[in-house]
Structures are given as C-alpha cells and as structure tokens.
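Request: Not sure, any thoughts?
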Amino acid sequence: MSMTTTAAYGERKALPALRPRRIPEHWWGYVLLAPAVALVVGIILYPVAYSFWISFHAKHAYMPIQNWVGLDNYIFFLTDYDGFWRSLWLGTIYAFGTVTLQIVVGVAAALVLNETFIGRGFVRGLTLFPYMLPTIVVVILMRWLFNDSIGVVKYLLESTIVTRAIVWFAPETIMVTMILVSTWTFFPFVVIGTLARMQTIDPELYAAAKVDGAGILRRLWHVTLPQIRSVLFVVVLLRFMFMFTKFDVIWLFAGAGGLGSYVRTLPIYTFVKSFGELQVGMGAALSTIMFMMLAAFVALYFRLFKRDENL
C-alpha cells in the first residue's frame, strides 16, 4: 500500500460519524400540546365560530335551507319587546335574585361551619347534599314540597306564619319559587369557596381584633369579609354567569308555554326559537348576543374590581 493511499484512508477514518439531526426540545412541547389544542378547537372554537356564522343566515333546523340575511336577525331582536327584551328582563331578575340569596345564605352557612362544634364534619357533608342531586330529582322533590294541596311547605306555613295557602306555581309567584329552588340547589357552591378561604385566615387577626374590643359583627366586617373578598369576587362572577344561562331547572319546572312564559329567560327563548320555531339562525343570533352580554359584564366587573383595589 502506498503512502498516499494510507494517508487518504486515515483521513476518512478520522471523519466523525454522521448523526441524525435532533428535534429541538421546544418542538416537543408543541407536539404534546397538539391533542389538547385540537380538542379545544374541535369542541369549543369551531362550534362558536359556526354559531356566529349561522347567526347571519335564515336557517331551518332540519331542512337544508340557509339564506344570507346579514344583520336582520339582530335587528329583529332589538325591536322584539315582547320576546327578547322581556326574556332579558326576566333572566336578569332570576340571575340577580338567585345570586344575591346564594351569597347571603352561602356566606352565613360558611361562617357557621367555620366554627368548632360537635358533628361539624357531618354537617359540612350534609350542606353539599343539594349540589350533588341531579336536576330532575330536585324538580320532582320541590314539586312535592311546594304542592298547593299536600306540600310540606304549605303545611308548615299554615301552621306557623300564614293563614291562607300560597299558590307557589301561579303566574304571580312562579318566579319567586324558581329563585328559592335555585338558591337551595346552588348555594353550596358559595359555601365551598368561602369556607375554604376562611380556613386559611390567620387566627392572630381575630385575636388582635378581640384585644382592640371588636365584637362579632365588627370582626366579621373588618376581618372576615376583607379576607374573603377576592374569593367572593370570583364566586359572584361565576354564579351570575351560570344563573344567567341556566336552562334545565326552569325548563323542567315551567317549560315554554303556560307558566313558562312568566319565567322565559334568554336560554329558554333561544331554545324555543331554535327547536320550537325551527329558526336556527335566530337561535344562533340569540346565543351570540348572550355571549357578548356576558363578555361585557365580565369586562366591566373586572374593571370595577381593579379600580376598587387601587383605592
């Protein structure tokens, strides 16, 4: 073997072996996130975008009829005083009434459950019972309790407070009944949030307040409420959004016609337009309007909360 051949062979042998190109580490993050992103796009973003697109059409629910109408659906609801505006007003009353009572009852229950007494664990578990019941079970139970003839509520009221039976399922009282039932069903949500925050309050704050001579009410106002303020902010926001869009309780109690017309909130009105009158375009427009209302409410709510924090 010649010297030239030997040198060339040595140079080839000294060359590093070629390795496959490694994928950058940040690309693995994209790969792992891809299934979740696809799920969100397919289940949430696409239906929302499609609903927004359909709101500009006159579309039948079951027939392949779809005509572009532009803003006609939205203009129709702006002048629909007996339908849209009345449903908006009823939905606001229902949401405001239920959220207010849920906050009052929930915070009061959390204050009691935060104290030490025999059987506290059992009572805490019992408090969550209404929230765990299926909606249909709640409706059947409340229809029996509020029955005008054999209801337990009728018997208790007539034997203690009133002398004349209250018709709970009448046009004049159905909204009050719905608010009371929804308060009983959903107030444990408030209890869970506020009680969890109360458990983390520093006991030294209460001890210092007692040294300063603060009574129970002053300790509640100057110690407890400021400490749970941020939690109440989130709870009120979520409860209002949930109750404003609540459908199942109202539908199972009252339906669309009859008594339902006295508690026909926007979700019920949207269902009637979409599947009662088979006008999916109008139903999509209503859902879009509700979405924009809730978005505006959330933006205003956050702005007011931030302004209050800066004071």
